[in-house]
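Input:
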Amino acid sequence: MAMTARQRGMLSCQRCHLLCRQAPGAIACPRCGSLLHSRKPNSIARTWALVVAALILYIPANILPITHTAALGSVQSDTIMSGVIYFIQSGSWPIALIIFIASVFVPLLKLVILISLLLSIQCRSQKRPLDRTRLYRLIETIGRWSMLDIFVVTILVALVHLGSLADITAGPGALYFGAVVVVTMFAAETFDARLIWDTLEECNDRSD
Amino acid sequence: MKTTSLVACHECDLLHQQMDVPIGGVARCARCGSSLYRPKRDSLNRTFALTVSGIIFYVIANIYPFLGFRIGSQIRETTLATGIYELYLQQMSIIATLVFLTVIMVPAVNLLCLLYILIPLKAKRVPPHLAKVFRLYLLLKPWGMMEIFMLGILVAAIKLVKMATIIPGVALFAFMALIFVLAATSVTLDRHLIWDQIKWQ
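Output:
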């Protein structure tokens, strides 16, 4: 019958995937030196903490301006959404869509998926573990792309620096937005996908 | 301590009997479908060639301006480092650090890590601290964000195109080449081949 490494008393190294025998106390992988864990330590609690932090940071990230544009005497402040609206109004639909997806949709999607994964594990759900693993893989891959707006601000700030004619500076929103991206990346890293499958084995063990 | 013939899926922990996979093929977990191992054709040589060209493109991308911006008679050109410096001057040093790490530092460290690992391995020698260096490489990999920066250049250019004339610079082309090279290194690199070089008791 198919078994997991944990059921056989073995540990799989997170970095180099070497399979080792479980031993009492903390042990390091004999091949690559990483600390071995059967599951990532305190995965649920740590992921929750990072998710909640990201949710809080998400608010100022979207409310506060990310750029201030000074052109010919007038100053205009832009948030992420007003940037999206600017592109819609100027007819650049594809760019508006790219920014909206990368900056607004992806961070929110990532948080919603992580919260539902955490809740499903805590409720000991056995439904569709494969689909849940796929959702986790999805957020692991797309999360980095939210950095897009930070890079756009960096490039704008570097290029548009012509004194009184036109000058773009970064706003406080950029700081919070960068924090959201970094914190959600750490949250996805802290989450252990194997927890999704553990409930199934525990139930199988009981019925045997 | 090791059980040679078994391998555990790192996404669902299911144990599998290790089997020979043809080069270019992939062994997938029977339960969750994540890849267990995928041997690559001529991995060391190909990855080494890509790494060397990557370093050349990296240097060009960092030295020359990637975008120019012209209003009337005023021209402003920007290199990778200019934006970071401007952010730093605007008391946005945290954001400046983040951009520096993800676009300049991490790609450089990753390329150097690969070079450090691959040169001795090609000469059939195992470099000292191989495990530490390769762990560093794997740890930093998701934080290298060159391809996202490239999309950022595109968005910024479209944003400014009505305001002024945008002039693509030499570094822009090096940048595009670098993105493909970096993506190709992660395709040609066989992680298990590297780990298997380490002798342990």
